[in-house]
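User: C-alpha cells for Protein max, please.
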Amino acid sequence: MMSDDDRDIDMGSEDDDGVDTDDGFNEKTSQSSTSSTPTPPTTKPMTQAEKRAHHNMLERKRRDHIKDSFISLRDSVPSLHGEKVSKRPNSSRAQILKKAAEYIQFMRRKNSAHQHDIEDLKRQNQILENQIRALERAKLAGGLRAATSGAVGNPMDIKLKTRTSESDSDMDGTKSGTPTIVSVSSGGTVKRVKVVTVANTPR
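Assistant: Done. Predicted C-alpha cells:
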C-alpha cells in the first residue's frame, strides 16, 4: 500500500510528463508553419536576344522623341513652315537648328526695338499729362480772376463821395470853395482825387 508521500511524487511526475508533451507539440507546430511559407520564385535571367530587343526598343523611343522635337522646332520657325524632315537627318536637322538660331536673334532685336518704342511712348504720355495739368491750373486761375473782376465791378466805375456836411452845402449839395473827395475805381484799384468846385455867382 502507497503512502501519502509516494502518491504526491507520482502525481508530480505525471504533471512533468504532460508539460514535456506540450513543449514537443509546440515545437512541431512551429516547424510545420515555417515550412509551409511559400518561397519567392527565382527570376530568370534575360537571354542575349531579349536584351538586344529591349535595347532596340529603348533606342527607337529615343529616336522618335528626338524626331518629334525637331518637328516641333521646325514648326515654330516661320521660314521653315511646309518643309519636311528628310531621310538624311544630319543635313535637315542642321538646317533647322540654323534657321531657329537666326529666328531667335531676329525676335530679340524686334523685342528690343519694341521696348524702346514703349519707353518713348511712356515719356510722351508723361509730357502730355504735365501739359494737361498745367492747362487745368491756368483755367482755374483764369476763372478766379474773372470772378474777382466781376465782384469789383466795371474797371472805369467812378464813384463820387463828398466830405461836406449838409449844413455847409449849398442847394446843389456842394459847398462853395471846398474840395470834394472823388473815389475812382479802376481795375480793382481805388484812387482818391480832390475836386474843387467854384460857387456860382449871381449875374
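User: Anything notable?

Assistant: Helices lie at 4-35, 48-76, 89-152.
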